[in-house]
Amino acid sequence: MSRTFVMVKPDGVRRGLVGRIVARLEAKGLALTALKLVAVSPAMAAQHYEEHRDKPFYPELVQFITAGPAVAMVWEGREAVAVVRGLMGVTDPAKAAPGTIRGDWALSITENLVHGADGEASADREMRIYFSDAELSAGTPRRPRD
Description:
40% of the residues lie in helices and 19% in strands. By secondary structure, it is α+β, with helices and mostly antiparallel strands. It has one domain: Nucleoside diphosphate kinase-like domain (Alpha-Beta Plaits, 2-Layer Sandwich).
């Protein structure tokens, strides 16, 4: 089992898609282990997007992610990072496959609804930006067997 970090960005919250996004992840068999509504501060955004700091689109990333509430989540499951990234679809919704979150609902490269960690190291780093150790150690919920 592995864990990953997922965020429903402000556009997804504003458009009322949080429940649908959570449902897709649950339907794939992932277990939700942490969730909170967050107001991403500029400092949190700087930590989250530190690898993009020198890129021309960095200010737009920070402005967008701090523009409204977001939903931070931790999901657990077999190959969680790869599974989530497959469900999200590629960054550009015009190129994202139908049936993916971005392919079905995203409006633009900027307003692409979700962020998912790109690897286990990134997932761990991102989880720690938004969740305390106590929140992360709360454990995986027990789920009935199918």
